[in-house]
Amino acid sequence: QRSDDCVYEEGTCMARDPAPECLNYTSASGHPGHVLGGLCPDGAQDLVQPTGEHGCTYSYAKAGQVSIDKVAGILDEDCGGRKCTTWIDFRQNCSNPDYRQKFNAATNRIEPFRYCIEYDISPLCQADCSNPACQALPDSEKELGLPFWQGRCNEQANMVRSEHVAASFHVARPGIDHDLTALGLDQKTSSAGCVYQQPGICAPSPQQGGNYCSRQW
Fold first, then answer.
1. ω into residue 132 within 30 of 0, thus cis?
2. Contact at 8 Å (CB) between 58 and 39?
3. Which residue has better confidence, 26 or 133?
4. Which end of the chain is more exposed for a tag (fewer CB within 10 A), N or C?
């Protein structure tokens, strides 16, 4: 039984336009035919810049993805005469003995460890890098692990890490342009929120995901 709500095309029931006249351009628009929507030509494959003209008010593209293992340098590390393939491969099989050590939270000392550590920071610096006990440590006793994560307490090093991630996403001029997501808004009143540096740059806020970048944040 055929329904009045259908228009049959090659035996398939296609939904009937509820008001066909509403889907056509008006004579005043200067564009004949159906309104095709605002998707720009080829706007489903590439992020085409919309012109605002008829039929081109938006475009979209697939979200980019980067591997944090690749960004952090894990895939460049040696795992027994070959490149490490994953984080777990690195953790179990890395060849560099410097990575097989960690900080003891009870003694604040570096001790051997059976697994390879991507990154670890001295307990004296964990909560506050401005802690005098942290400041008194030589750099070699503040952090362990991959070079990419070194300088967790260093604002410039954090910026370099952000630039490196942006470059991995093929962001234009990542080392020059540092655009904020809330560009043009007063940061202190923006709903995006900021993590203010109290007591210092190593002041993470679990609720806001900052204040420095690491695999955990």
1. no
2. yes
3. 133
4. N
* DSSP type of residue 183: T
* Residues 159-184: tens digit of each pLDDT: 888 888 888 877 777 777 766 544 44
Residues paired with residue 112 on neighbouring β-strands, in sequence order:
101
Q: In angstroms, what CA-CA distances link 36 with 23, 33, 56, 205?
A: 8, 9, 10, 46
- Cβ-based neighbours of 205, under 8 Å, separated by 6 or more: 195, 211
The Cβ of residue 17 has, within 10 Å, a number of other Cβ atoms equal to 12
Q: How far is CA 10 from CA 4, 14, 20, 201, in A?
A: 16, 10, 21, 66
The predicted pLDDT at position 175 comes to: 73
Q: CA-to-CA distance for 52 and 198, rounded, in angstroms?
A: 45
User: Contact at 8 Å (CB) between 102 and 110?
Assistant: yes
Other Cβ atoms less than 10 A from the Cβ of 170: the count is 9
pTM of the shown model: 0.59
Q: Are 195 and 208 in contact, with CB atoms under 8 Å apart?
A: yes
Contact at 8 Å (CB) between 24 and 35?
Answer: yes
Give the C-alpha distances (Å, rounded to integers) separating 22 from 8, 26, 29, 123.
21, 9, 13, 67
Q: In this predicted structure, what is the pLDDT of residue 193? A: 41
The structure tokens listed for 135 are 């400041």
What is the 8-class DSSP label of residue 189?
Answer: T
**205: DSSP letter:** B
Q: Which residues contact 71 (CB under 8 A, 6 or more apart)?
A: 148, 164, 165, 168
